[in-house]
Amino acid sequence: MWAEACDLMEEAQRLHRQFFRPNATARAQATWEPPVDVFEDEHELVIVAAMPGVIAERVRVVHESGVLVVRGERPLPFAGQRFAVRQLEIPYGTFERRITLPAGRYEAGAPELTYGCLVLRLRRIG
């Protein structure tokens, strides 16, 4: 039973590192990567990036040579107030996520920020 508990703890730590790891390939100021899901059919790609607490004005999406780049910032709440940090598990600061797109041409729809997730729809062209 103890070995099973240790295995579960290791798996939880692995998942935490996977989803909230500092981005090693991006600019030095990016401190975390939002996790993404990518869905695809014959007509479009739908990308969902989890970023609860991030307002639309703090998110930028750009296309760079077959890669979709999502950049932004989630500021630390209560910064500059009288509170001391007792526990900090949610990533804050600047973020960047690079999503390699499958070959092809795409037309981007309007980004939607819904329920703490950025939803990007890319319609296939041609």
Order of helices and strands, N to C? HEEEEEEEE
- Main sheet properties: 5 strands, antiparallel
Low-confidence segments, given as residue ranges, are: 22-27
| Global geometry | globular
Q: For the residues shown, what is the average pLDDT?
A: 85
Tell me the fraction of residues in β-strands, as a range: 35-45%
Please state the CA-atom Rg, rounded to the nearest Å: 17 Å
Helix/strand-derived class?
Answer: mainly beta
Q: Helix segment count?
A: 1
The end-to-end span amounts to 56 Å
Helix content: 10-25%
The strand count comes to 8
Q: How would you explain this protein's 3D organization?
A:
By secondary structure, the chain is mainly beta. Helices cover 14% and strands 40% of the residues. It contains one helix and eight strands, in the order αββββββββ. The strands form two sheets. Strands 1, 2, 6, 7 and 8 form a five-stranded antiparallel β-sheet that branches. β7 and β8 (117-125) form a beta hairpin. The N and C termini lie far apart (56 Å). The relative contact order is 0.23. Residues 22-27 have low confidence and may be disordered.
What attributes does this structure have?
single chain, 126 residues, mainly beta, five-stranded antiparallel beta sheet, three-stranded antiparallel beta sheet, 1 helix
